[in-house]
Amino acid sequence: MSRPRCSCCKRPASHCLCALIPDLSSCTEVLVLQHPDEVDHALNTANLAVLGLRNANLWVGEVFDDLPAWLAEPGYRVRLLFPGDEAQPLTLASSEEESRPMRLVVPDGTWRKARKLLHLNPLLAALPRVTLRDVPPSRYRLRKAPMEGSLSTLEAIVAALNVLEAPNDYGELLKPFDALIEGQIAAMGEETFRRNHLR
């Protein structure tokens, strides 16, 4: 029999993180496209990010039928937060054209699954890409980063918003994330964590 779960943060009710989740506004609209395999993952950081942002949505799937209409809505700059040869460093808007509100699309899943989302949604793959630069090391101490500069989905969203919405600081979104990581470490035991993750 499974443990009762919080319907909001999806954590076990005994480890609910809702009290730590902020209620933050932003001009930037964030759309997280989550691979279905991530939904029930114990470390679902995308859900925490969306819960803490008023102007954010989470769509779960592999093919997103509503994406063409959403992308066609006028008045926005739409960018895909994903690395690649054509990806431009994310910067604060500096011209009238760039002052239009941004819609930031963030794929959520392993690198392989995120690439699959792009492959299955050609309109998504065709979006102008942006990437982060000079990011702090990930606080995601439970996973070994596949490449330098890798961040969890929540950390990437925080870093992006800190650029796009400067001087506003979205670090408060990391409070439930830090508690989540600390809780997982406590559950496995400090000795097990040190043996398996501090190498």
Automatic annotation (TrEMBL):
GO biological processes: tRNA processing
Record flagged with keyword Ubl conjugation: no
Q: Which GO terms describe its molecular function?
A: tRNA-uridine aminocarboxypropyltransferase activity
Domain DTW positions = 2-189
What's the Enzyme Commission number for this chain?
Answer: 2.5.1.25
* UniProt KW keywords: S-adenosyl-L-methionine, Transferase, tRNA processing
What general EC class does the enzyme of this chain belong to?
transferase
UniProt keyword S-adenosyl-L-methionine, yes or no:
yes
The entry sums up its family as follows:
Belongs to the TDD superfamily. DTWD2 family.
What is the protein's name according to its record?
tRNA-uridine aminocarboxypropyltransferase
